[in-house]
Amino acid sequence: MSSENTIRLTFPANMEYIPSVRKFFADCITATGFSRRFTFRSEIVIDELCNNAIRHGSQAVNEAITVYIELVDEKTITITVENSVAEEFSNKDLKEIIQSSNGKCGRGIKIIKILCDSIVVNSKENTSISVTRKIKG
Amino acid sequence: MSDVKLKTFISSHSSFITVLKVIGNLDAGMETQLSKGLESSLEIGNKFLIVDLSDVDFISSPIIGTLMGIRRRLVETAGDLYIVGLSAENKNKFKLMGAEKIFFCLHDERSAVLKHEWEQEKRKDSLILEIPSRLDFIPCVRSFISRVGGIKDYTKRDSFRLETIIDEIGNNAIEHCDAETNNKIDFEIGISKEKVEINVTDYHDGTITKEDCENIKKIFKDPAKYRDDFKRGRGIELVKMLTESLDVEVEENKTTVKILKMKEV
């Protein structure tokens, strides 16, 4: 990921930070020239991804979450949220949860699927979920 | 009356904290059962208690009174009682009764442990931020720092001062970095109950001379002396006034400004 178009923030895995984090990234996306609507929808995605990372990631007290946003071009951004993997979730589990369209699928994931053009899950030492959002048209 | 189960255990995050998990509805008339559960939780000997209400749909008003009574006792012995897992409806009930001003109502057990560590002044939260070296991102960073100050109970004045510091040092970092070769600025923020430590790093191409290093250090040591007639150089002077300490470390390929600001009492 090139640093010239990437904004990265690592923060403690504590729910109290999420409103400030999503607002920070929304401000950055707006500053880059994206519309308010695109920004607001990106903020929703960041909120859902961060909530999931904190809720379902490692429950260690010193756990941290990292959010990257890559400003790919004038019409595209990539949002990545990374956290330590919780024991009960494997990479396969996560992919199944995301791909599943039945009752197992949480509302947050459904919202992300509606608002994003692609979702990529990687899980080795850490779990990372990358989503791409593009301006339509 | 509905059946309520009470489970007591030591928090997996801290041996100093006992958790009382309640399962079922806390109707009126169940105060005695809850009181007994709370008493047996306290017998473990910890002064800090988390009451987990994530599996409780209904809480009657007298139950909130019982919780208040136990909290008062714990506070008198320098302990505390944290409430976690309130549903939206129960949260509203706490709000209507003014109880959300008395208790720390938190999301889950981990949040309560983090709050406990914060209140006991044992905890420093670390945030690491990397932005492209573009001036239009600085307002975003300074607003973010201000919001973090707000959620950590820093006064509005303190939060605004943090904003000012980030604005001045962030703008300087962008102005003086080598945008051609290293297009990023790093912010490392450590915030605790009593102080904020901020390190701002910009990168250059490695051509900085020993003389340049000495000049930068001199400016940070005595900014008033080096302020020119064109109103430039006031930023460092301003930051120096707003902080307890301001240092600079100049290396071959990077400059780090280190700031320490104590919380306003």
Mind sketching the topology for me?
The complex is a heterodimer of chains A (137) and B (265).
Chain A: E1 6-12, H1 18-31, H2 36-56, E2 64-73, E3 76-84, H3 91-99, H4 107-115, E4 118-123, E5 126-134
Antiparallel strand pairs in A: 1-2, 2-3, 3-5, 4-5
Chain B: E1 5-10, E2 17-23, H1 31-42, E3 48-55, H2 61-76, E4 80-84, H3 88-96, E5 104-106, H4 109-119, E6 124-132, H5 138-151, H6 156-176, E7 184-192, E8 195-203, H7 210-221, H8 223-226, H9 234-242, E9 245-250, E10 254-262
Parallel strand pairs in B: 2-3, 3-4, 4-5
Antiparallel strand pairs in B: 1-2, 6-7, 7-8, 8-10, 9-10
Helix pairs in contact in B: 1-2, 5-6, 6-9
Walk me through this protein's architecture.
With 137 residues, chain A is α+β, with helices and mostly antiparallel strands. Helix content of chain A is 39%, strand content 30%. Chain A contains four helices and five strands; from the N terminus they run E-H-H-E-E-H-H-E-E. In chain A, strands 1-2-3-5-4 form a five-stranded antiparallel β-sheet, with helices on one face. In chain A, a hairpin with a 2-residue loop joins strand 4 and strand 5. In chain A, helix 1 runs antiparallel to helix 2 and helix 2 runs antiparallel to helix 4. The model of chain A has no long low-confidence stretch (mean pLDDT 86). With 265 residues, chain B is α/β, with parallel strands linked by helices. Chain B is 41% helix and 27% strand. In chain B, the strands form two sheets. Chain B has a five-stranded mixed β-sheet, sandwiched between helices. In chain B, strands 6-7-8-10-9 form a five-stranded antiparallel β-sheet. Chain B is elongated, with a radius of gyration of 25 Å. At the A-B interface, strand 1 and helix 1 of A face helix 4, strand 6 and helix 5 of B. Strand 1 of chain A pairs antiparallel with strand 6 of chain B.
